[in-house]
Structure formats: C-alpha cells, structure tokens
Amino acid sequence: MLENGAPVVKLDEDGHPERDGTWMSASAHIITAVVGSGVLSLGWATAQLGWIFGPAALFIFAGVTWFAAKLLVACNKSPDPITGKRNYCYMDVVKANLGRFEVKLCGLAQYGNLIGATIGYTITSGISISAMVKTICVHKHGNQAKCHGSTQLYIIIFGCIELLLSQTPNFHKLSFLSILAAIMSFSYSFIGIALCIERIIGGNPVQTSLTGVIVGVDVTSQEKVWKVLEAIGNIAFAYGFSMILVEIQARQDTLKSGPSKNKVMQKATTVGVSVTTVFYVLCGTLGYAAFGNNAPGNILTEFETSKFFWLVEIANIAVVVHLLGAFQVFAQPFFQFVERKCADKWPESGFINTTHPIHIPMVGKYEVNFFPLVWRSIYVIMATLVAVILPFFNEVLGLLGAIAFWPLTVFLPVEMHLKQTNTKRFSFTWICFKTLSMICLVISLLTAAASIRGLVVSFKASKPL
C-alpha cells in the first residue's frame, strides 16, 4: 500500500512493524536454535547413563524445558495493564517482573553463557578440523599410520578466522547466516545418525548395558558418578534455548500480534521441543548402539575408517561452517554490550567514540573505530587461548549446560510466573514450583562441580601443543 508515493507500514500495538509469522515459522526458529553442536555429545551422554536412564534423562529435560518455556512465553508483556509494553529480550522480561538481583543474575548467566559458548564452539571446531585431517590421513596411509594431528593447532587456526570475522561491520544484519547455520546443523546431525545406522547394520560388536558404562570394567565407582553428572550437563546444554526464546517471540518477522499470540507461541514451543526431543533420542540411542560403552565424546570423530569417509568429511565441514557463524551470533551481543557500556561511561573518549576513515585500494573508504578493533581482537585471542588450554569437549559443554540451566531455564520463569499469578506463599502450587526450582538448582551445582573436576583431570592428563 502506497501513500503519497511512499509505502505505508502497518504497525503493531507497540509501534513496531506488524509481524507476519505463524506458529510454524516460530517452531522452525526454535528447532534451529536448539539443534546445534550439543547433539554430537548425546551418544556419549547416553553411554554414561545407559538404556534406562539415558532416554529417560532426555525426556525429563525435554519436559522441564517445555514447561518452563511455556511460563516464560506468558511473560512477553510487562505486568503494566495500561501500556501493555512488549518485552524484546530476556532481561527486559525479568526487569518488568522481578527485582534488581534477578536482573543481574539474568545478565550474568546470559553473558556468561555467551562467552562460554564462543569458547565451546572454538573447541568443537578444532576437534572437527582435526578429525577431518585424521580421516584423510587414514585413507591415504592406512589404519596403521600415525594420524594424530594437534587439536590445539586447529583451534588457533579457527581463532584466526574469527579474529577477522569479528571486525565485520553490521554482522548481525547478515540474515543468511541464520539460514546457513540451520542447514549446516541439520546436515551434520542427519549424517551422524545415518553413519550410526550404517555402523549398527554392519554388525560391529559393542557392549551396552541398562545402566551404561560398567563400574569395575570401564570406570571406577567414583568416576561413574562424575561421568553421569557430566552427561546430565551435556544434555542440559543440548536443550538450552531459553536465553533466546523471548527474542524469537519478539522478533518482528516471527510472530503476529494479537490476543492469541501467547497461545500461538506456546504451540510453537510444544512443537519445537517435541521435534527436537525425537531427534535427540535418535541421536543418543543410535550413537550408543553404534559404539556402546566406548562411545566417543563427539560422535563424528570415530568414523575415519568408515567406507563413507567422504560423508564424514562433509559432516565435519558442516560443523566448522556452522560454528564460524555461530561464534559471531553469540559473540556480537557481548561485543555490543561492552562497547555500549564503555561509550556511556566515557562519552568524551576519542579512542572509544571516534571513527577514522581509511582508504582501502579496490574497496573504497572504510570507517574504523579503534576501540572495537582492539577490544574484539583481545576477546577472540583470549577465547582462543582458553580453548587451547582446555580443549575438552564434553567437560566444557557440561559446564555451559550447568551454568545456564537453572537460572535461565527454570528459576527466572518460575519466579516470574509466581509473581504474575500472585501465588500464595506455602500453597500447594507454590511448594511444587519451588521444589522444582530447588531440584534443578542442585542438579546444576552437581553437574557444574563434575564438569570442573573433569576439566582439571583432563588438563592434568593433556599434552602441550
């Protein structure tokens, strides 16, 4: 529609361009957000828990995530009945419903998880590149060849690429990256499932059990407990999407406005979590069936001798391409947060707030702000350095899952729901919600402790670059 030669943009009740999304598009965003590199660890996690507790843990975390997500979706407007202001990020929701402590906890958990995710993605990419090189070496020189590349070296290479990508202006506006990431994540996930099925059909003998790795055979009783807790942390990481659920709901092109939009988003959440759970159960159980109690931490690292090695290479390439973009998706909000805070604190600083034109041959004039150039470079270097020192896939994923699970997935949605519904203290409903939150807190603390212990043990046993 045109008015005086200019297009007329329809606005929502909050003054933003009208959304045209549906529950299907919102479900697609949720599935894309949830399915990521965490899927590669589910075979290992199932091996630690066994045939009974492995699938059970996947379903339990799915149920808790779905329930808490429905509570969070209901908080997409502030309690103000007059303005009905829409919340556009998780911290806005918390700020509108709870106090300063909860807002700080949300920010700490969110940004801590963003930082941790960039480190975890750097580690995962280094492992995938190493697996690619090892596969080529095995098929070129035979199974007896010494094909053990340095994961730390490939982590550094990945970090160097991210060093350049971090300086890309308006990276958040490159919408095709989201589409590319979705294609890549589903590609390597489906390839991993297919390779596991091929290995099972091939009749490779493996040992499995109802309770997972066997005490006295595979691990000691103490190691069994720690590994089980690490596995739970890996599953929690795989389901982690609460930190961006509000952003998905509020995104202008995601969900139509209207009185039923909460119900539509709740339907999308149900569909998204259900599809993801079926997918995860397949990945976990097939990975365990294919490798048994010796299932690798990253399912794509143990197919170098497969006759479909070219498919393994494609999967690992997809992992690296996915994580090149995913690193930036998680790092950019933190970059902008720090830059915004520094600009507010030191408004007179030329180093922070002044841009300088630089002429680049064959490209043209390029505006450079030296503060982001220095700050972002330092961040990527530090993240890469931590990944080089601690290149331990399952332990890092377990720690990230533990950090984000309780505060972002359970505690904050529960507290906001209790406040919005004015639930009476010590009522049956209040006790049930508080008990759920407390149980999840204990699980998060135990999994965090197990992951930190695993990092320490793995670090002591590791070899330098």
From TrEMBL:
The entry's keywords: Amino-acid transport, Membrane, Transmembrane, Transmembrane helix, Transport
UniProt keyword Ubl conjugation present: no
Compartments in which it is found: Membrane
Amino acid transporter transmembrane domain sequence ranges: 20-456
A biological process from GO: amino acid transport
Alphabetized Pfam families for the sequence: Aa_trans
Record-annotated membrane-spanning stretches: 26-45, 51-69, 174-201, 268-288, 308-331, 370-390, 396-414, 435-456
Protein name (record): Amino acid transporter, transmembrane domain
Keyword Mitochondrion: no
One cellular component (GO) term of this entry: membrane
Protein origin, superkingdom: Eukaryota
Signal peptide: none
